[in-house]
Design a protein that fits this description.
The complex is a heterotrimer of chains A (231), B (842) and C (109). With 231 residues, chain A is α+β, with helices and mostly antiparallel strands. Helices cover 28% and strands 26% of the residues of chain A. Chain A contains three helices and ten strands. Chain A is elongated, with a radius of gyration of 23 Å. Chain B has helices at residues 17-28, 33-39, 43-72, 82-117, 125-147, 172-200, 213-245, 258-291, 299-312, 328-340, 342-358, 365-388, 390-396, 400-430, 438-462, 479-509, 542-546, 549-557, 595-611, 622-634, 663-692, 705-733, 739-762, 771-802, 812-841; strands at residues 571-576, 583-589, 645-648, 651-653. Chain B has 842 residues and is an all-alpha fold. In chain B, a hairpin with a 2-residue loop joins β3 and β4 (651-653). Chain B has two domains: 36-509, Cytochrome c oxidase-like, subunit I domain (Cytochrome C Oxidase, Chain A, Up-down Bundle); 697-841, Cytochrome c oxidase, subunit III, four-helix bundle (Four Helix Bundle (Hemerythrin (Met), subunit A)), CATH 1.20.120. Chain C has one domain (6-100). Chain C is 72% helix and 4% strand. Chain C has a two-stranded antiparallel sheet with strand order 1-2. The radius of gyration of chain C is 17 Å and the shape is elongated. Classes of the chains: A alpha+beta (231), B mainly alpha (842), C mainly alpha (109). Chains in contact: A-B, A-C, B-C. Chains A and B meet through α1, α2 and β7 of A and α4, α9, α10, α11 and α12 of B. Chain A: It catalyses: 4 Fe(II)-[cytochrome c] + O2 + 8 H(+)(in) = 4 Fe(III)-[cytochrome c] + 2 H2O + 4 H(+)(out).
């Protein structure tokens, strides 16, 4: 059980699952980050324990303290070693989840307070309000734009988040291993209805891609998308 | 002649302590009654008042937190409507940062530093008072806005374009921009005077490398404030200009960039965390060794750690922006720097634990809070390292995980140490002992309440709950987590209420404390309880600094240190050299005055006019501000004919420095340093908008030869003003009249101002057209403001010459003006070059 | 350089971290500029102009720190301890924050 990290709270043992939980990943990118998190948690728990034990031990009788061993040995070299390891892992996973190589491109356009998505269909781009269609089992690059304030595109089970910034276009890679419906939300505070800016990602079986049942709409043309700046 | 070795100066003969006390008390004490409080400029009074006011704001901010927790306790609460909820979480963050944490640490530092450094007050007492009034008035504006329902609601980070006029049309955002900037005057004022006080007012012979660690921490804090606040102030000024006048710095449709705001805000916002942490760590470094009955482990390593933190923390700001679409390599720089800053933190943590190992820690109340700090802050630091990991940050950013992390860091790293500090210094501040039992109960309630609230909040965030949402009807899996956070939040509140009651009871009904109750080595306890305004009847030399509070106390009270008593009826302190603290001269501090309050009111009038949208009238309100500052300078204690003062047998010191800088000059250098960061941030903005920002390119200015000529004319006139000032100083130093040179300088400066105004009004493109035009106009306005101040400086010197107040020993105003003038000339030249470069790239 | 305290000592104290700060700012600025001007595509032998441009200020900073480290003892004598730590901070911080230049993807993809 991966929730063992929180085993101190038996009540919540089963509670790590959820449609928005980063701890129940549904694709390789979210999975990479989840593994990274469990590794970080294990390391952090050990380090915290070390410090707490050292503090507890100080309540004994006075001892000789080699100053340099504490300040430089523990303080500098030990922590630098741990941090270097962490940084290396961070860079490695960071490069893995970057949008390298070819991928299907879809668009996510945010405004107060809704999302418009589009994906390439058989007869041109398909547009949908609040629902993003993607094929399962292959990487998808979401091109994220906004026409008013800053929003943030986030589907916790499929990958990290990326801001939608007016005047810019950002690219985020996501991937769903299996077909299904995944929940997403706006993560950056964007005004009154920020909380209701939810959406869905439907991952289709690759055999059924592009899905035929969806209505075909004219190419996406909100003003800010048309003048979307250099990628 | 001043001997090189301070320890060799013979002591003053002992005198009757009571006699000295009466003599000093008459000179240094506050006036009676309410008026006496209003006119007080004492660091003891103002330090306490800063802390008390900060505590009141902490209560208000805490109340808002409870409203947030009440709203989130159930998934679909209708307790607060969304607009109000947004105002409440915005104000909670803003109050805790700007009205609690910063003023709290300023107050503690102001109260303690002169006592620890062995002097009688801070370098600029009236500035302390001005800072307090700006803080109180600015804070009141924010609270009144909250009560009136027009508080800012765009988050404490005020991201554009949401905080721009289009999406936040009311005055709510203006309240934040103007109110917080008004409050920041107090932060800059405190930073300048803490910096100057630490560098110039240490007791004779107290080398930098021997001063209490707390002073090192505050020196680092002050330096960080001088460099960290200007970007925020610049950002606020630019955003207010955009909102008020339509200068499109952050508007993507007219070439602006919302990311510029984020850079400026976090360039302040991240160092801010360390600005808050450093003084708290200073408290820990002071309290832990004494309560462990030993000395600190690794003094030098800790000083180096402070140094590292001060710098490294300026290389982290982008880790708040990991999801804005910056390339991985740039993220990696900041990720690495964010990792690295954990090293100096670790050095300090292990130095403190090592100190406890070496000694015999006593579980007194402050030590409980120290343990609370270890338990909480270590976890907060570790989640901080996790958040510095870019991939994990992409998941955790803007979720409750970050809320939990930042509360672990701020409550663990600031509030717990501050509570340790308050319980530690309460006997000093109140002169009384605490009532047993209550404090321990408060500690346990706070600790349990805190971890109950925030530990599981990490999980809430990992399960996907974003920040700043009022309802979560579709996510029953977050319900229990939120309910338990809310429950324990109220437990924590009860703990803080109990803590407050304990303080009030101690101050009102506690038994009188003995002097030096903790057997401390530092000078802050070598005085009566509660301390008199003058702190020390005589100022400690090297021997008394090292004697420990108990042994130094009596000798100091009997006048065996330097500069005993106040026989001349003046507020006298010793100014020493930066590194080795050799006594340089005696400085005279101002008496009680209401002038700071009047100046604060005048600034407040300007702020309110801007807030009300009376943009045409508002600049007029700056005239009284300028006039009052003139009066402020005129009323600085003039000692044109003061005779040298005997600070120890046979050792005469001048009242004005024969060589070396005056305190005012040191203060001005600090101010110019902060000003320089402001200017550098503005140049960064220019480069960012010109090179990095997407959107339409800057339209060509089509500047022709007349523009170039006008720019050269402005620079030449400023140079002439500078030379005139130099010439005047040379003549005054030679004892000759300098009137002609001064008149020439004033005229040159005035002409420069007129030329610049003609340039700005005549040929500058409309600043509302494009962000490039706006930032160009902002640069010109910056230079114009500096020339205007230079005019005032030169006119002040001319006025002094006319009154016959300038002589070789009293030419400080000429030197100060020279500093400002040279800075203005350099800034004008740099601005010209920058605008030239902008033209070339456009 | 003055031996006893004063601004000289303070100058030595902040020298190391200041050098780091300068290198860090310049590298970050050059990185942004390089991405705009397409430096990653221009190769200088085995590496791109981009990586060379970003690495150069750091190498310079490391050099400066080493030179100062060699001199600090003669300049400050018994007071050299903490400034020397400051120089080490500058050196290690430069090495550490610039290490990602070798591996991370430079510009937006």
């Amino acid at each position: 059980m991966k929730c063992a990290g929180f085993a101190t709270v038996p009540l919540l043992l089963a509670g790590c699952k959820g449609p928005l939980s980063t701890l129940s990943p549904a694709g390789p990118i979210a999975q990479d980050i989840a593994w990274l998190w469990w590794a970080l948690l294990a390391g952090a728990a050990l380090l915290a324990l070390l410090v707490f034990v050292l503090v507890a031990l100080s309540f004994g009788r006075p001892r000789e303290v080699p100053e340099k061993r504490w300040t430089f040995g523990l303080g500098v070299w030990f922590s630098l070693a741990v941090l270097t390891l962490t940084l290396a892992a961070a860079l490695w996973v960071g490069e893995r989840i970057l949008p390298h190589g070819p991928a299907l491109e879809v668009h996510a356009h945010a405004r107060q307070w809704s999302w418009t998505f589009s994906h390439p269909g058989a007869q041109g781009p398909n547009e949908a309000e609040g629902v993003l269609h993607i094929p399962a089992g292959q990487p998808v690059d979401v091109l994220i734009t906004s026409s008013d304030v800053i929003h943030s595109f986030w589907v916790p089970q499929l990958g990290g988040k990326m801001d939608a910034i007016p005047g810019r276009q950002n690219r985020l890679r996501i991937e769903a291993t299996r077909p299904g419906t995944y929940e997403g939300l706006c993560a950056e505070f964007c005004g009154l209805e920020h909380a209701s800016m939810r959406f869905e990602v439907i991952a289709h079986d690759p055999a059924d891609w592009p899905p035929a049942s969806l209505p075909v709409s004219p190419p996406l043309s909100p003003p800010a998308l048309m003048e979307a700046p250099r990628p | 002649m001043i001997p090189n070795d301070v320890a060799a100066i013979p002591p003053n003969p002992p005198r009757r302590a009571l006699h000295l006390h009466r003599e000093l008390d008459i000179v240094w004490r506050n006036g009676p009654g309410l008026w006496g409080q209003i006119t007080s400029v004492s660091h003891t009074t103002l330090g306490l008042r800063f802390m008390g006011t900060a505590f009141v704001f902490f209560g208000i901010g805490g109340l808002l937190a409870m409203l947030i927790r009440a709203q989130l306790a159930t998934p679909q609460s209708a307790f607060l409507d969304t607009a109000l909820y947004n105002q409440i979480f915005t104000m909670h963050g803003s109050i805790m940062m700007f009205l609690f944490a910063i003023p709290m640490l300023e107050g503690l530092a102001m109260y303690l530093l002169p006592k620890m450094l062995g002097t009688r007050d801070l370098a600029f007492p009236r500035l302390s008072a001005l800072g307090y009034w700006c803080y109180l008035l600015g804070g009141s504006i924010l609270i009144l806005a909250l009560l009136a329902g027009v508080a800012p609601g765009d988050g404490w980070f005020m991201y554009t374009p949401l905080s721009g006029k289009t999406y936040s049309p009311g005055i709510n955002a203006d309240v934040w921009l103007l109110g917080v900037t008004f409050v920041e005057i107090s932060a800059l004022a405190a930073a300048i005077e803490l910096m100057v006080s630490i560098l110039r007012l240490r007791a004779p012979g107290m080398k930098l490398t021997q001063m209490p660690l707390f002073a090192w921490y505050i020196l680092g804090t002050a330096a960080m404030m001088l460099a960290g606040f200007p970007p925020l102030i610049l950002g606020s000024v630019l955003l207010e200009m955009e909102r008020a006048f339509g200068w499109p710095f952050f508007d993507p449709e007219r070439g602006g960039d919302p990311l510029l705001w984020q850079h400026l805000f976090w360039l302040f916002g991240h160092p801010e965390v360390y600005i808050i942490f450093l003084p708290a760590a200073g408290v820990l470094s002071t309290v832990i060794p004494v309560l462990s009955r030993t000395t600190i482990v690794g003094y030098g390593a800790i000083v180096a750690a402070i140094l590292g933190m001060v710098f490294l923390s300026f290389g982290l700001w982008v880790h708040h922006m990991f999801t804005v679409g910056i390339p991985h390599l740039a993220l990696a720089f900041f990720s690495a720097a964010s990792m690295l800053v954990a090293v100096p933190t670790a050095v300090q943590i292990f130095a403190w634990i090592g100190t406890m190992w070496r000694g015999r820690p006593e579980l007194k109340l402050p030590m409980l809070y120290v343990l609370g700090f270890f338990f909480t802050f270590v976890m907060g630091g570790l989640t901080g390292v996790m958040l510095a990991v870019v991939p994990f940050n992409w998941q955790a950013h803007d979720t409750a995980f970050v809320t939990a992390h930042l509360h672990y860091v701020l409550i663990g790293g600031f509030v717990f140490p501050m509570l340790a500090g308050v319980t530690w210094w309460m006997p000093l501040m109140s002169g009384r002992r605490r009532i047993r039992g209550l404090g321990e109960s408060a500690f346990w309630l706070i600790l349990i309440g805190f971890h109950g609230t925030f530990f599981l909040m990490h999980l809430t965030g990992l399960m996907g709950m974003p920040r700043r949402i009022p309802t979560y009807a579709d996510n029953p899996e977050w319900m229990l987590l939120n309910l338990s956070s809310s429950f324990f939040g109220f437990v924590m509140t009860i703990g803080f209420a109990l803590f407050t009651i304990d303080l009030i009871l101690q101050a009102g009904f506690g038994k009188r404390s003995v002097r030096d109750p903790w057997h401390a080595p530092s000078l802050d306890w070598a005085m009566a309880l509660p301390p008199p305004n003058y702190n020390f009847a005589s100022l400690p030399g090297v021997e008394l600094q090292k004697a420990g509070a108990a042994d130094a106390m009596l000798k100091l009270a009997r006048g065996e240190g330097f500069l005993p008593g106040a026989p001349r009826g003046r507020r006298e302190i010793l100014v020493t050299s930066v590194g080795s603290a050799r006594p340089e001269h005696v400085a005279l501090l101002p008496f009680n005055t209401a002038l700071p309050l009047v100046v604060a009111f005048a600034i407040c009038a300007f702020v309110l006019l801007m807030l009300g949208g009376f943009y045409a009238v508002a600049p007029v309100a700056l005239i009284p501000v300028a006039g009052l500052i003139w009066a402020w300078a005129r009323r600085a204690v003039a000692a044109v004919d003061a005779a040298p003062v005997e600070i120890a047998p046979g050792l005469l010191l001048p009242v004005h420095p024969a060589n070396g800088a005056t305190l005012t000059q040191s203060g001005l250098v600090s101010l110019l340093f902060a000003n320089g960061t402001f200017f550098a941030s503005l140049l960064f903005g220019l480069a960012f908008l010109t090179l990095v920002s997407p959107g339409p390119p800057v339209p060509a200015w089509q500047a022709d030869g007349t523009v170039l000529l006008a720019a050269i004319a402005v620079l030449a006139l400023l140079a002439a003003g500078t030379l005139g000032g130099r010439w005047a100083l040379a003549r005054v130093e030679a004892g000759q009249p300098a009137g002609a040179a001064l008149i020439g300088s004033v005229v040159a400066n005035l002409a420069a101002l007129v030329a610049l105004a003609a340039l700005a009004l005549g040929v500058l493109p409309d600043p509302t057209r494009h962000a490039g035009d706006a930032v160009r106009a902002a640069l010109v306005a910056y230079v114009g403001l500096h020339i205007a101040v230079a005019v005032l400086f030169s006119a002040f010197a001319l006025d002094q010459a006319r009154r016959g107040e300038l002589n070789p020993a009293h030419a400080g105003s000429l030197r100060n003006w020279g500093l400002w003038q040279r800075y203005t000339l350099a800034a004008a030249a740099l601005a010209t070059a920058a605008l030239w470069a902008q033209e070339l790239t456009a | 350089m003055r031996r006893v305290g004063g601004m000289g000592w303070l100058g030595w104290l902040i020298a190391g971290p200041t050098v780091w700060a300068a290198a860090f700012s310049v590298a970050y600025g050059l990185h942004g500029l390089g991405c705009e001007l397409g430096w990653p595509a221009l190769s200088l032998g085995p590496v791109s102009l981009q990586r060379v441009a970003i690495a150069l200020p750091s190498l310079a900073a490391i050099l400066v720190c080493l030179v100062l480290l060699a001199r600090v003892k003669t300049a400050l004598g018994p007071e050299a301890g903490i400034p020397r730590l400051g120089l080490w901070i500058g050196l290690i911080a430069t090495l550490y924050t610039m290490a990602p230049v070798l591996v991370a993807t430079s510009c937006r993809v």
